[in-house]
Amino acid sequence: MRILRYLAAMLAASTAFLGALVGAQAAANAATALPAPVSCAGCWHPALNTSWQWQLSSVPAEPFLDVAMYDIDGFNATAATVQRLHATRTGRTVVCYISAGSYEDWRPDAGSFPASVLGKALDGWAGERWLDIRQYGGTLGQIMRARLDMCKAKGFDAVEFDNVDGYTNKTGFPLTADDQLRYNAWLANEAHARGLSAGLKNDNEQIPQLLPYFDWALNEQCWEFSECTTAQNGDYGLDQFVKAGKAVFNVEYNLATSKFCGKANAQNFNSLKKRLELDAYRVACR
């Protein structure tokens, strides 16, 4: 009888533990609940092998490179520039770069940001401060919607959202991974609602959750830091995009092309060697 009572007590304790574990997991899932992805059948879904140029510090001048995609600064480019990029190569895609996670004091809408959303300075980037992305339900969200409207009005096809990994940085706010997931999913859905393709910039650690929301990925230095593949980085490998039929665009600044191009081509990544200032200089791996 003592043995039976002991076994019964052990069973009850195990059941209670498992119940608590399931409850904790359910609570965690509820905390990270995300809205359904907004579909965008007409959006740009780049082929895995897509030639491209990333030029943010200057507006591209003619003659343009014979590449399928240009990623350029959304504020500095005019509608006429976007139109010329489209006109000079059939089917060319033009991507609108905007920072969705940082305040930039030189932008024309800088005065619209309330003080409550402005955090610490970004290391190495003068004039930039992290944003409190938790406030996207208010003025911050209105600003980002206006930026997306600008991209659409100028004729862009897609959006590159920069600085969408604030939760891994010292922002001045207690941002969590859940905060970032909700914000990034919201950004992608807002882009799709306007017929704009959405690219996930860096934020590799949230690829498993965000893959359904984004149409392609853009990454800096994943070969330098061994973060490109599941073999290197577990569930956070960018090759998950390729496996899902979604293109990966990668840039390396410090590595020689001999150190990464072969590996990039083998993974079907669209990799470039660029200077940090992201001017017209470009060496493509393929």
Structure description:
This protein has helices at residues 2-31, 79-87, 139-153, 177-193, 207-210, 230-233, 239-243, 257-266, and strands at residues 52-55, 69-73, 93-99, 102-104, 118-121, 128-131, 158-162, 197-201, 216-220, 248-252, 270-273, 283-284. The protein is an alpha/beta fold and 286 residues long. It has 2 domains: 1-31; 39-284, TIM Barrel (Alpha-Beta Barrel). Mean pLDDT is 92; it is low at 1-30.
Topology of this structure?
Layout: H1 2-31, E1 52-55, E2 69-73, H2 79-87, E3 93-99, E4 102-104, E5 118-121, E6 128-131, H3 139-153, E7 158-162, H4 177-193, E8 197-201, H5 207-210, E9 216-220, H6 230-233, H7 239-243, E10 248-252, H8 257-266, E11 270-273, E12 283-284
* Name given to the CATH homologous superfamily of the largest domain: Aldolase class I
Based on the structure given, which CATH architecture of the largest domain is correct?
Alpha-Beta Barrel
Reported by name, the CATH topology of the largest domain is: TIM Barrel
| Rounded mean pLDDT score | 92
Oligomer: single chain
| Annotation, overall tally of beta strands | 12
Distance between the termini: 75 Å
Provide the spatial order of strands within the biggest beta sheet.
Answer: 1-2-3-7-8-9-10-11-12
Low-confidence stretches: 1-30
Structural class: alpha/beta
CATH class descriptor of the largest domain: Alpha Beta
Largest sheet: 9 strands, mixed
What proportion strand?
A: 15-25%
Estimate the global geometry from the Cα principal axes.
globular
